[in-house]
Amino acid sequence: MRLHHVQVSCPPGGEEVARAFYRDVLGIAEVAKPPVLAARGGCWFRADGVEVHVGVEEDFRPARKAHPAFLVDDVDAVARRAETAGLPVTWDDDLPGCRRFHTADGHGNRVEVLAEP
């Protein structure tokens, strides 16, 4: 079994803010949604072994505990891009053997970014 994708939510009209985070901060390329699903709004992102679907939720509330965690090669570079974008970067050394931080996408959804030694 493998994980196919993770879905996070955004408010109606929140696609550009999602792109600014998932595409520009994390560096995950946007891919086209199938036409029947594109009519619902939202956007999809895909990189090697990672797929994120951002869906529109009318009564949106950000996920503050549940979160995706992205394993990256250069955690410091991603942290710098997040800080440059005005996003919070909270370093956490509670997970032995990993260098990681938590941030939030532009809609306040919690996101973890980590690198293994």
Structure described in brief:
With 117 residues, this protein is of the alpha/beta class. 21% of the residues lie in helices and 32% in strands. The protein has a single domain (6-115), classed as 2,3-Dihydroxybiphenyl 1,2-Dioxygenase, domain 1 (Roll).
What do you see in this structure?
With 117 residues, this protein is α/β, with parallel strands linked by helices. The protein contains three helices and eight strands, in the order βαβαβββαβββ. It has one domain: 2,3-Dihydroxybiphenyl 1,2-Dioxygenase, domain 1 (Roll), CATH 3.10.180. The two termini are 26 Å apart.
Primary descriptors:
2,3-Dihydroxybiphenyl 1,2-Dioxygenase, domain 1; 3 helices; globular; alpha/beta
Chain-wise SSE layout:
Blueprint: E1 6-10, H1 15-25, E2 29-31, H2 35-38, E3 43-47, E4 50-56, E5 69-71, H3 75-84, E6 90-92, E7 99-104, E8 110-115
Parallel strand pairs: 1-4, 5-8
Antiparallel strand pairs: 2-3, 3-4, 6-7, 7-8
Report the major sheet.
4 strands, mixed
CATH third-tier fold name: 2,3-Dihydroxybiphenyl 1,2-Dioxygenase, domain 1
- The helix fraction, in percent, is 10-25%
Uncertain regions spanning at least 5 consecutive residues = none
Measured on Cα atoms, how large is the radius of gyration?
A: 14 Å
Number of domains: 1
Q: What is the ordering of alpha helices and beta strands?
A: EHEHEEEHEEE
CATH superfamily name? 2,3-Dihydroxybiphenyl 1,2-Dioxygenase, domain 1
For the termini, the CA-CA separation is: 26 Å
CATH class: Alpha Beta
Tell me what the CATH architecture is.
Roll
So what's the overall shape?
globular
The counted number of beta strands is 8
Mean pLDDT, to the nearest integer, reads: 96
